[in-house]
Amino acid sequence: MSINVAIDGPAGAGKSTIAKLIAKKMGYIYVDTGAMYRAMALYFIRNGIKPEETQKVSEKCKDADISIAYRDGEQVVLLDDENVNGLIRTEEVGNMASATSANKNVREKLVELQKKLAANADVVMDGRDIGTVVLPNADVKIYLTASSAVRAKRRYDELVAKGEKADLSTIEADIIERDHRDMTREISPLKQADDAVLVDSSYMTIDEVVQTVVDLIKKIK
Ligand code: DC
């Protein structure tokens, strides 16, 4: 049987950083489900579809060919066979992904792909509904969070390090708005699974968080 580790939590909690390090340490495959919603969002943007055009979103998502490949140990998201990793990390795509990920057809399509990836491999999968919907029988479930102020500061530092302009209070307001949207949507809202372990990373180092999760994995093995 393959080992499945589910990591859910709000934007900016450090899920992907932590999940990648755990995957490396344990020799598992890292699956970034947010990247799939982002690739789908890019597809809508390219096709001139607005987030509020829900009927078009419902229909057009069926034509999007999204798949995952692994190159040099990195997850690559393919949209119609094009590697879109370099195009999906913008605010525009993130906001579109947040809006369109509320759509039932979009979720059904991507959840099916995610389940397939986890069926035959040891994976660390991160997202919003992994422990609740995608992998309800995951061996280890983590709900990773941090205060909105800490998450905003991390994002701010990232942008400043890249030489980009940033405003801390705008970033925090954005984070709070996105949390609200992700937590209150009708289908698969972000919430802690009953059997998930809550990890608040606000005052923890990356190493401490990784070690906490690795210890939990070792317990079940
Ligand atoms: O984790 P991220 O910022 O790359 O995710 C982008 C958007 O996709 C986010 O607003 C919520 C959505 N998402 C989701 O609804 N379910 C997932 N499993 C992963 C992401």
How does this model look, in words?
This protein is of the alpha/beta class and 221 residues long. 50% of the residues lie in helices and 17% in strands. The protein has helices at 15-26, 33-46, 54-60, 91-100, 104-119, 130-134, 148-161, 168-184, 206-220, and strands at residues 4-8, 29-32, 66-71, 74-79, 82-83, 123-127, 140-145, 197-200. A hairpin with a 2-residue loop joins strand 4 and strand 5. The chain starts with a strand and ends with a helix. The mean pLDDT is 95. It binds 2'-deoxycytidine-5'-monophosphate (DC). 2'-deoxycytidine-5'-monophosphate binds next to helix 2, helix 4 and helix 8.
Could you give a short description of this structure?
The protein is α/β, with parallel strands linked by helices and 221 residues long. The chain has helices spanning 15-26, 33-46, 54-60, 91-100, 104-119, 130-134, 148-161, 168-184, 206-220; strands at 4-8, 29-32, 66-71, 74-79, 82-83, 123-127, 140-145, 197-200. A hairpin with a 2-residue loop joins β4 (74-79) and β5 (82-83).
* Tally of DSSP helical segments: 9
Shape: globular
Overall average pLDDT: 95
**CATH architectural designation:** 3-Layer(aba) Sandwich
Structural class: alpha/beta
Low confidence ranges:
none
SSE blueprint and pairings:
Blueprint: E1 4-8, H1 15-26, E2 29-32, H2 33-46, H3 54-60, E3 66-71, E4 74-79, E5 82-83, H4 91-100, H5 104-119, E6 123-127, H6 130-134, E7 140-145, H7 148-161, H8 168-184, E8 197-200, H9 206-220
Parallel strand pairs: 1-6, 1-7, 2-6, 7-8
Antiparallel strand pairs: 3-4, 4-5
The structure holds 2'-deoxycytidine-5'-monophosphate.
